[in-house]
Amino acid sequence: IMKARYIKPINRCNPDQRTAHIILTFNTKESANQVIKFGLMVAGKKVYARKLIAEPSRYLKCHSLNGLHKAAECQQEFDICGTCTRIHRTSTCMITDQNNFFCVNCNAQGHAVWDRNCPMFIQKWNNHKNYHKETKVCFYPTEDSLMW
Questions:
Q1: Which residues of 77-89 are buried (b: 16+ CB within 10 A; e: fewer)?
Q2: Is the pTM of this model over 0.85?
Protein backbone atom coordinates (compact mmCIF):
# COMPACT_ATOMS: atom_id res chain seq x y z
CA ILE A 1 0.00 0.00 0.00
CA MET A 2 1.52 3.29 -1.10
CA LYS A 3 -1.20 5.62 0.16
CA ALA A 4 -4.48 5.54 2.08
CA ARG A 5 -7.08 8.26 2.55
CA TYR A 6 -10.63 8.55 3.82
CA ILE A 7 -13.23 9.29 1.16
CA LYS A 8 -15.09 11.72 3.40
CA PRO A 9 -13.03 14.45 5.10
CA ILE A 10 -12.57 13.69 8.81
CA ASN A 11 -14.05 17.04 9.82
CA ARG A 12 -17.35 16.05 8.13
CA CYS A 13 -17.65 12.70 9.96
CA ASN A 14 -20.17 12.12 12.72
CA PRO A 15 -18.42 12.00 16.14
CA ASP A 16 -20.13 8.63 16.82
CA GLN A 17 -19.10 7.14 13.47
CA ARG A 18 -17.28 3.81 13.85
CA THR A 19 -16.66 2.83 10.23
CA ALA A 20 -15.54 4.66 7.10
CA HIS A 21 -14.65 4.09 3.47
CA ILE A 22 -11.07 4.57 2.32
CA ILE A 23 -9.20 4.75 -0.96
CA LEU A 24 -6.02 2.72 -1.11
CA THR A 25 -3.29 3.27 -3.68
CA PHE A 26 -1.10 0.28 -4.55
CA ASN A 27 2.27 0.27 -6.26
CA THR A 28 1.21 -2.42 -8.78
CA LYS A 29 -1.97 -3.50 -10.53
CA GLU A 30 -1.27 -7.05 -9.36
CA SER A 31 -1.31 -5.96 -5.70
CA ALA A 32 -4.59 -4.11 -6.19
CA ASN A 33 -6.10 -7.15 -7.93
CA GLN A 34 -5.03 -9.42 -5.05
CA VAL A 35 -6.88 -7.22 -2.56
CA ILE A 36 -9.94 -7.02 -4.82
CA LYS A 37 -9.97 -10.81 -5.19
CA PHE A 38 -9.10 -11.93 -1.66
CA GLY A 39 -9.78 -8.96 0.63
CA LEU A 40 -7.53 -7.43 3.26
CA MET A 41 -7.21 -7.55 7.04
CA VAL A 42 -7.64 -4.16 8.71
CA ALA A 43 -7.50 -3.93 12.50
CA GLY A 44 -8.24 -7.66 12.75
CA LYS A 45 -11.28 -7.50 10.47
CA LYS A 46 -11.47 -8.85 6.91
CA VAL A 47 -12.57 -6.13 4.52
CA TYR A 48 -13.29 -6.26 0.82
CA ALA A 49 -12.34 -3.87 -1.94
CA ARG A 50 -13.44 -2.87 -5.39
CA LYS A 51 -11.77 -0.97 -8.18
CA LEU A 52 -12.27 2.77 -8.00
CA ILE A 53 -13.95 3.97 -11.18
CA ALA A 54 -13.64 7.61 -12.16
CA GLU A 55 -16.94 9.41 -12.54
CA PRO A 56 -17.96 12.01 -15.10
CA SER A 57 -16.43 15.40 -14.31
CA ARG A 58 -18.56 18.14 -12.79
CA TYR A 59 -17.21 21.66 -12.69
CA LEU A 60 -17.32 23.13 -9.19
CA LYS A 61 -17.98 26.67 -10.40
CA CYS A 62 -20.94 26.11 -12.74
CA HIS A 63 -21.65 22.42 -11.89
CA SER A 64 -22.02 21.46 -15.53
CA LEU A 65 -21.76 17.76 -16.38
CA ASN A 66 -21.43 18.50 -20.09
CA GLY A 67 -17.64 18.56 -20.20
CA LEU A 68 -17.80 21.02 -23.07
CA HIS A 69 -15.35 23.46 -21.52
CA LYS A 70 -12.35 23.47 -19.22
CA ALA A 71 -12.60 24.93 -15.73
CA ALA A 72 -10.25 27.79 -16.71
CA GLU A 73 -12.58 28.63 -19.62
CA CYS A 74 -15.82 28.57 -17.61
CA GLN A 75 -18.05 31.50 -18.55
CA GLN A 76 -19.76 31.49 -15.14
CA GLU A 77 -18.59 34.65 -13.37
CA PHE A 78 -19.47 33.59 -9.82
CA ASP A 79 -19.51 30.29 -7.94
CA ILE A 80 -22.96 28.73 -8.18
CA CYS A 81 -24.14 26.60 -5.26
CA GLY A 82 -24.61 22.95 -6.17
CA THR A 83 -27.46 22.66 -3.67
CA CYS A 84 -29.65 25.73 -4.27
CA THR A 85 -28.04 27.43 -7.36
CA ARG A 86 -27.61 30.74 -5.56
CA ILE A 87 -24.35 32.68 -5.81
CA HIS A 88 -22.19 31.15 -3.07
CA ARG A 89 -20.02 28.08 -2.64
CA THR A 90 -21.83 24.80 -2.04
CA SER A 91 -19.85 24.26 1.17
CA THR A 92 -21.40 27.41 2.69
CA CYS A 93 -25.03 26.67 1.72
CA MET A 94 -27.53 26.86 4.57
CA ILE A 95 -30.38 25.12 2.71
CA THR A 96 -31.18 21.75 4.30
CA ASP A 97 -34.75 21.11 3.11
CA GLN A 98 -34.53 18.88 0.04
CA ASN A 99 -37.68 20.49 -1.35
CA ASN A 100 -35.62 23.67 -1.79
CA PHE A 101 -32.73 21.93 -3.58
CA PHE A 102 -32.38 22.75 -7.27
CA CYS A 103 -30.35 20.98 -9.95
CA VAL A 104 -28.87 23.20 -12.65
CA ASN A 105 -28.20 20.20 -14.90
CA CYS A 106 -31.81 18.95 -14.91
CA ASN A 107 -33.30 22.39 -14.31
CA ALA A 108 -35.46 20.69 -11.68
CA GLN A 109 -36.33 21.26 -8.05
CA GLY A 110 -36.17 18.53 -5.39
CA HIS A 111 -32.57 17.38 -5.75
CA ALA A 112 -29.11 18.96 -5.91
CA VAL A 113 -26.48 18.58 -8.64
CA TRP A 114 -24.48 16.24 -6.38
CA ASP A 115 -27.42 13.81 -5.95
CA ARG A 116 -26.46 10.32 -7.17
CA ASN A 117 -30.09 9.83 -8.30
CA CYS A 118 -30.06 12.92 -10.53
CA PRO A 119 -31.40 11.77 -13.92
CA MET A 120 -28.72 13.79 -15.75
CA PHE A 121 -25.93 12.29 -13.59
CA ILE A 122 -27.29 8.77 -14.21
CA GLN A 123 -27.37 9.42 -17.97
CA LYS A 124 -23.83 10.84 -17.99
CA TRP A 125 -22.60 8.00 -15.74
CA ASN A 126 -24.04 5.37 -18.11
CA ASN A 127 -22.51 7.14 -21.13
CA HIS A 128 -19.19 7.35 -19.28
CA LYS A 129 -19.25 3.62 -18.45
CA ASN A 130 -20.05 2.73 -22.06
CA TYR A 131 -17.26 4.93 -23.38
CA HIS A 132 -14.60 3.79 -20.88
CA LYS A 133 -14.50 0.01 -21.34
CA GLU A 134 -12.22 -0.52 -18.30
CA THR A 135 -15.27 0.20 -16.10
CA LYS A 136 -16.82 -3.08 -17.24
CA VAL A 137 -14.20 -5.30 -15.56
CA CYS A 138 -13.71 -5.56 -11.82
CA PHE A 139 -9.92 -6.02 -11.97
CA TYR A 140 -7.09 -3.93 -13.39
CA PRO A 141 -5.84 -5.39 -16.70
CA THR A 142 -2.52 -7.23 -16.38
CA GLU A 143 -0.73 -10.04 -18.18
CA ASP A 144 -2.71 -12.50 -15.99
CA SER A 145 -5.82 -13.33 -18.04
CA LEU A 146 -7.56 -14.71 -14.91
CA MET A 147 -7.91 -11.14 -13.66
CA TRP A 148 -9.88 -9.89 -16.67
A1: eebbbbbbbeeee
A2: no
